Amino acid sequence: MSITPIDAIGSIYNEVVLSKKYAALCEPLIMRICREEYPKYKKDKDRIKSIKNKLHIIYGAFQSGETHKKAASIIEGLDNSIIHLKEASADIMRLHTSSNERVDSLDKFYGFIFDTIGHSQIRSILDIGCGFNPFSLDFMPADIVEYHAYDIDYRTIELLNRYFKLRGLPSLAATADIISETPQDIADAAFVFKLMPVIEIQSPGRGFALLRELNTRYIVVTYPIKSLCGKNKGMEINYAQTFECGSSEDFEIIAQSIIGDELVYIIRK
Questions:
Q1: What is the dihedral of CA 53, 100, 142, 80, to 10 degrees?
Q2: How many of the other CB atoms lie within 10 Å of CB of 71?
Q3: Does 106 share its domain with 155?
Q4: How many whole angstroms separate alpha carbon 223 and alpha carbon 197?
Q5: What's the alpha-carbon Rg for the chain, to the nearest Å?
Q6: Are 176 and 91 in the same domain?
Q7: How many domains in the chain?
Q8: Quick one: 219 exposed, middle or buried, by C-beta within 10 A (0-12, 13-18, 19+)?
Q9: What range does the domain containing 256 cover?
Q10: Rounded Cα distance, 171 and 169, in Å
């Protein structure tokens, strides 16, 4: 009895999730990449290698194997007290490569965003591909009552919902493969931090389509201006040209700045 492509893809999926590094990633993401890579190679070992390489680019390069374990330990050490929550949140953010790059400029970063949009205008947030960024909630100069957070890692989502509970917020963190689906939550502002390049690598054009589909009036989009190894390779100019050309017909850019190692755009739909 021959094996159908569906069964073969399912077998490859099972092999990928056996890897401890990727076992906690949401099923739709891994399954999508398995379907995309399957027809490109004749041998399963080559398919699996390619799938893992892609997962490393979009996920594995940003954290170590101990990231979530260490973050959970910090949260457990709070003993349901929010007295030291801001300090603990910064410690957690430093565990994740992407959010660590933002920690030392958080006050300036959020000052720019909230001063531009208006402190009273942002009560709810939609954070796409959030990573550990929602742990910076205590650095935001506004009273946030709802924080919708989406990531591809089940462990991240569990930690964020524990954190939201400590702060008395509803548990609105969930997993999603944003290449395949757009969150439908309504919020005052959406955060799309350093995510556009990762989206475009997987699905060219999807990044701007996602921005158009979000149910928010304001969107904050950032781009990294340095590589993960800290090198500046003309990324600022390239990303600025890409974003400003791609968003010209659909959005109004109301503010732009470089803060820390990020090129920041605030746009209005």
A1: 100
A2: 26
A3: yes
A4: 8
A5: 19
A6: yes
A7: 2
A8: buried
A9: 67-268
A10: 6
Task: List strands edge to edge, sheet with 252-259.
Answer: 173-175, 146-151, 124-128, 186-193, 215-224, 262-268, 252-259
The 3-class secondary structure across 20-86, one letter per residue, is CCCCCECHHHHHHHHHHHHHHCCCHHHHHHHHHHHHHHHCHHHCCCCHHHHHHHHHHCCCCCCCCHH
- pLDDT tens digit at each of 269 positions of the chain: 445 577 889 999 999 999 888 899 999 999 999 999 999 999 999 999 999 999 988 886 666 678 999 999 999 887 656 667 888 999 999 999 889 999 999 999 999 999 999 999 999 999 999 999 999 999 999 999 999 999 999 999 999 999 999 889 999 999 999 999 999 999 999 999 999 999 999 999 999 999 999 999 999 999 999 765 556 667 888 988 889 888 777 899 999 999 999 999 999 98
Given a contact cutoff of 8 angstroms between Cβ atoms, the answer to whether 264 and 258 are in contact is: yes
**What CATH number has the domain bearing residue 39?**
1.10.8.10
The answer to whether residues 72 and 47 belong to one domain is: no
Query: What does the angle CA 228 – CA 233 – CA 237 come to, to the nearest 5 degrees?
Result: 115
Q: What dihedral angle (degrees, nearest 10) is formed by the CA atoms of 243, 249, 254, 259? A: 0
d(CA 62, CA 4) in angstroms, rounded, equals 35
Q: Are 28 and 96 in the same domain?
A: no
CA distances from 152 to 60, 122, 157, 218 (A): 11, 25, 8, 23
| Same structural domain, 203 and 245 | yes
The CATH code of the domain that includes 98 is 3.40.50.150
Q: What angle do CA 122, 125, 127 make, to 5 degrees?
A: 145
Helix (H) or strand (E) holding 264: strand 262-268
